[in-house]
Design brief:
The chain has 80 residues and is mainly α. It contains four helices and no strands. The protein has helices spanning 9-16, 20-28, 35-48, 54-61. The radius of gyration is 19 Å and the shape is elongated.
């Protein structure tokens, strides 16, 4: 069984026959979009099983929730 390729925002926009900006606005809820377009984009996203890429959003937003830890010896109870 082949794995499904990752569905992008562009795939959703193409499937709903709307612009990339409109699809983004609908899925992010950032601007008012006509009800019929909102419904088409939402249906296309559900049909394609679209899931936003959290890593891409963090890079675009300039924030991420990653903490790096460097320690000398992880077997030392002080660092464990």
């Amino acid at each position: 069984m082949k794995a499904r390729p990752h569905v992008t925002l562009e795939d959703v926009a193409r499937s709903a026959n709307v612009s990339l900006a409109t699809a983004s606005r609908v899925l992010n809820g950032t601007a008012s979009v006509r009800a019929d377009l909102r419904e088409r984009v939402s249906a296309a996203a559900a049909e394609l099983a679209y899931a936003p890429n959290a890593h891409a959003q963090a890079l675009a937003g300039g924030t991420h929730r990653t903490v790096g830890v460097i320690c000398h010896d992880v077997s030392d109870p002080y660092f464990a």
